[in-house]
Amino acid sequence: MELELIVFGLITGFTSGFFGIGGGSILIPMLLLVGFVMKEAVAISIMQMVFSSIYGSFLNSKKIKGLVRDGIILGIGAIFGGLVSGYFLPSIPNIYLQYIFIATLIYTIYTLFRAPASQDVEQEDKNIFLLIFIGFFVGIFAMSIGIGGSLMLLPILVRFLKYDLKVATALGLFFVIFSSIGGFISTSIYGNMLYYEGAIIGIGSVIGVYFGIKVKEKTKATSYKKFVLTLNLFVLIIMIYKTI
């Protein structure tokens, strides 16, 4: 099982770096397929996000201007949202968590399909309170279904706040630092964390995220958008199959 978990970590880390996601959208279906129940998969997913998001964001911050500023503001809201999520998670049946996950994927696919692959709009400083508000509510729902928040945050950043897609994915991964730490603390307090499995996958994800970011930097914007949409469609199919 340890080798299997390391492989899961490598795959999850690569997708985290490339797509700017926490990795839950990839990791949770894989864990469900090998026998973990939804709440166990959520806990493991949250822990590995801490590993991949911190290292991946460190790499991204070297090349993207303003990433740290906007990421911290969103993260302030996200960490409180992640803390609140631990109160809701134990009381929600596994099947309802899967329905919420599916609805989130459908929403993301629809909004990204209509958004441009890249934007040349000059980036202005966004309203601090708006970013905190967005971070808080995304943090609540994201941690309740075991994802870092990028799946919900990405379409908001690209379509409504007019971020370039690649910048938005990097910001989404930075956002995951805060939401995952909040979720990790909350899940641990309520006794639902699986530390051993989460640590093994987390170590593998650190290696994977490095290569994911390197490949992303060399990918054209139009192709990158297609890859993001394909990822979400793939995960949606798996989740529908597992849920029906």
Automatic annotation (TrEMBL):
Belongs to the 4-toluene sulfonate uptake permease (TSUP) (TC 2.A.102) family. It is found in: Cell membrane; Membrane. Keywords: Cell membrane, Membrane, Transmembrane, Transmembrane helix. Its main location: membrane. One of its GO terms (cellular component) is plasma membrane. It is a multi-pass membrane protein. The chain crosses the membrane at residues 6-34, 71-89, 96-113, 128-155, 167-187, 193-212, 224-241. This is Probable membrane transporter protein. The keyword Cell membrane applies. It comes from the Bacteria. InterPro entries: TM_pro_TauE-like, TSUP/Inactive_protease-like.
